[in-house]
Amino acid sequence: MFTGSIVALITPMHDDGSVDRASLKKLINYHIASGTSAIVSVGTTGEAATLSYDEHVAVVMLTLELAEGRIPVIAGAGTSATAQAITLTRRFNDSGVAGCLSITPYYNKPTQTGLFEHFKAVAEQTDLPQILYNVPSRTGCDLLPETIARLASIKNIVAVKEATGNLSRVSHIQQLVDNENFILLSGDDASALDFMQLGGKGAVSVTANIAAREMAQLCALAAQGDFIKARLLNQRLSLLHQVLFVETNPIPVKWACKRLGLVATDTLRLPMTPLTDHARLVVENALTKTGLL
Predict the structure, then answer these.
(1) Is the bond preceding residue 72 a cis peptide, omega within 30 degrees?
(2) What is the pTM of this model?
(3) C-alpha to C-alpha distance for 187 and 163, rounded to whole angstroms
(4) Which residues are catalytic?
(5) What SS3 class is residue 40?
């Protein structure tokens, strides 16, 4: 369940900012039909930063309810304070989630020792599998390969989502980690295929929100070692990988989901603002060239 195309799912909202249950159900059904391996609920793309604690938990639980056991659900977790991250993670104990995707503490820029102690403390408070999430462009701190290797020795820390786009990290982590079952997942769609060719086992994907079947096929081809076909497919998707970040994620992908009829609105909560008119043209052009429109 921690391999293949794992979608970093958007959180659909009504015009007033409340969660859109009907659109969420539609998205979940779309991913099940498309072969998506698992759903990350309320990660960065799911706007975890603008949901309250209660809302965060409620969206994960609603996703579980609507999934009805048909697809694994991974709960986005982690905050900038270790005690709060423990509280959030423990809330998902016995909930039915497959595991937690735990982001590095943001803004306060802990040392590598601080990062190790943070994730160790969280992991010790749950039996749920933990996926480390390293995205320094959003958090302001970088979980280095040496620290990942130390954390990989903890029983229920089973994987890392590496979203730096730095492909040299793959072999570096592999060399340092003394655990053959530890899973490396790409968190950067643009380099995900190369990441998998170097030994990664899948991707936690933004692109999968709108090209679910194609990303599932891409990851399956990579797993089979058929990188000729995989590269041809990736060439078709490469424009999407780029333009979905023409403005801050999840602004473009949420608009694209609405444009494709997957959700009713592209509502975001402040300080996130709607996709600009110029960027809409860019995203629409990519949807057309990719064949999604």
Answers:
(1) no
(2) 0.97
(3) 4
(4) 133, 161
(5) strand
